[in-house]
């Protein structure tokens, strides 16, 4: 089998210059997004790596971790991680199960659970409240239009 120019005989992948290749991931590539995450939430990422993977994030600076591996680990952090909470404006330690249980409590009792995590993003809360108010008003209109059943 012939060798490709600028390629070691044992390496079957051809070397390509991808610097001029178009970015297929949109405006923010993986590495730029990872750099921003590390800049904004380094402590949370470091704590999560230690908690969930037993990996020291300081290995990135010592050459023990590659950027590809850091990206893969960050991408697969569970929803209850500190990084997830910091990025999504949620309270720390609230897993999906915790939020669902608080929602069930509210559905059964009619009152919000006292320990339900509150999102930090006030605009999202206001949008949710206005949507809920519109749905309640729509339900009332539909109920008013139904014919009354004879008793």
Automatic annotation (TrEMBL):
UniProt-recorded name of the protein: DUF222 domain-containing protein
Bias-annotated ranges (Low complexity): 132-145
Residues covered by region (Disordered): 1-25, 110-151
Compositional bias annotation for Basic and acidic residues: 8-25, 118-131
Organism superkingdom: Bacteria
């Amino acid at each position: 089998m012939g060798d490709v120019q600028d390629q070691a005989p044992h390496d079957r992948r051809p070397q390509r210059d991808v610097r001029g290749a178009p970015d297929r991931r949109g405006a923010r590539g993986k590495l730029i997004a990872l750099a921003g995450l590390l800049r904004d939430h380094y402590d949370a990422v470091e704590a999560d790596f230690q908690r969930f993977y037993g990996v020291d994030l300081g290995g990135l600076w010592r050459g023990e971790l590659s950027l590809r591996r850091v990206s893969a680990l960050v991408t697969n952090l569970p929803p209850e991680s500190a990084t997830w909470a910091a990025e999504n404006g949620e309270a720390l330690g609230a897993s999906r199960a915790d939020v669902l249980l608080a929602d069930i409590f509210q559905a059964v009792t009619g009152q919000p659970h006292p320990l339900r995590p509150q999102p930090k993003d006030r605009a999202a809360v206001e949008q949710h409240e206005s949507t809920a108010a519109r749905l309640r008003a729509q339900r009332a209109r539909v109920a008013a239009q139904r014919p009354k059943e004879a008793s």
